[in-house]
Amino acid sequence: MYNDNNQVHVNEGEQLTIEIKRMGINGEGIGYYERKLVFVPGALPTEKVIVEVTDDLNNFIRAKLMEILTKSKDRIQPVDDYANEVGGFELENLAYPKQLEFKRDVIRQSLEKYQPTGYRRFKLLPTIGMEDPTHYRNKATFQIRKDEDGNTIAGLYKARSHDVVDLKTSALQYPLTMKVMRAIVTMIDELGIPAYDEEKNAGIIKTVVVRAAIATDQVQVTFITQSKKLLKKHQLLERIKAELPEVVSIMQNVNPGRTSLIWGDEMIHLAGRETITEVLNDLKFDLSARAFLQANPEMTSILYDEAFKALDLKGNEKLVDAYSGVGTIGLSVAKQVREVRGMDTIADAVQDANANSVRNGIFNCLYEVGEAEELLPEWVNDGWTPTALIVDPPRTGLADSLIDTILDIVPKKFVYISCNPSTLAQDLVKLTEKYNVEYIQSVDLMPQTSRCECVVKFKKK
């Protein structure tokens, strides 16, 4: 029904029948009720569905899928039972070739929204996908809670809630991560170590992070705790040692109080090594617990190959590797350039990057702790001007001050690896003042999810 402003209003719990016209950038189906947008997770284009309203906001309605009256020919049976319950499995209902088309379309939607100069002429290449788009995630970050019966559970939050869904299996995780996670949950339960209770802000273990190095099958376990105190620590470590020989590194991270952040500032080394070793592009990388590495090593190599192809290196470049993490990009390409300099704000990652450089016998790379927008002008002032630049920022995109610095220096060769088409499109508005976009190549690092990675090749105007 309508109010005085001629706006559609519906009640929470009301059921509507709508047709799904397209998919939104988060993988949800989008339809219209009386010309008002309706977002329906789990629904696919061309489907006629019955939905239940969960939120009626000014400009759109959020709804829950209740029944599919007309099914899309692209709908498949999801590989996980709970695919539509928790975040990170948004596209499991959609046939894989269509997922790849969707990811290219997300880039197009973002460009249309922000309209950087010349965006209609940008060449959007077909998304490169995986042969088997399952069992690829090398890291599981699961919340630890108690269920109604007092059993310890581990999993992810239900969409738009803080209710944890117990994930006993996951077709997207590398099997070793799930084997270790389920064994750890059993140990926590049997030893009676208190799980975190968010409402009471009580208990000890909040989150368990299990990361596996796919090339070496070494596993690192990190317990994220409410305080330094870890009850039954000795028994827990003894059991891990006896039952899980693949776990070679055990860490504890202290993150007190109610917070939306997973990691706290204090890291404690509990047992084994402080790092695990992964192999990428024939190089060995030591990873500490907080160091970032893409979740899908197989496709990371392909993503980097696309980035290096776009850089078109000739051997004499001075390359900046911004947001460098543990040095995976810069070190992979070090032999093809004169010199690499990189930076990251996480000190542990920079330490790992410099250690990885030495470990691999690479001596033309230097990594420093700091913001790219601060270090880059310093280097230029000291007489070191880059001729090539590769950026791989977090989902928030590039800092405005870094964009200004790039537009001041205008390196001849410039490639942007993005994990968020929306912030990429925003950044392109300014970057296209001095650069043309030759093409955007999307690469599927996170099959079954709405996440999209891409490589942008720039040409100086």
SSE topology sketch:
Layout: E1 15-23, E2 29-33, E3 36-40, E4 48-56, E5 60-70, H1 96-114, E6 124-128, E7 139-146, E8 152-157, E9 164-166, H2 175-191, E10 205-213, E11 218-225, H3 233-243, E12 247-254, E13 266-272, E14 275-280, E15 283-288, H4 297-311, E16 318-322, H5 328-333, E17 339-344, H6 347-359, E18 365-369, H7 372-381, E19 388-391, H8 400-409, E20 413-418, H9 421-431, E21 435-443, E22 453-460
Parallel strand pairs: 3-5, 6-21, 11-12, 16-17, 16-19, 17-18, 19-20
Antiparallel strand pairs: 1-2, 1-4, 2-3, 4-5, 7-8, 7-10, 8-9, 10-11, 12-13, 14-15, 20-22, 21-22
Please, could you describe this protein's structure?
- It is built from 9 helices and 22 strands.
- The protein is α/β, with parallel strands linked by helices.
- The strands form 4 sheets. An 8-stranded mixed sheet has the order 6-21-22-20-19-16-17-18, sandwiched between helices. A 7-stranded mixed sheet has the order 9-8-7-10-11-12-13, with helices on one face.
- Helix 1 (96-114) runs parallel beside helix 9 (421-431).
- The longest helix is centred in the first third of the chain and has 19 residues, at 96-114.
- It is globular.
- The model is unreliable at 1-5 (pLDDT under 50).
Mean pLDDT: 95
Q: Proportion of β residues?
A: 25-35%
- Number of distinct beta strands: 22
Helix content, binned percent: 10-25%
Broad structural category: alpha/beta
SS summary, helix count: 9
Low-confidence stretches: 1-5
User: CA-to-CA gap between the ends?
Assistant: 53 Å
* Rounded Rg: 24 Å
Largest sheet, strands/sense/barrel: 8 strands, mixed
Order of neighbouring strands in the sheet with most strands: 6-21-22-20-19-16-17-18
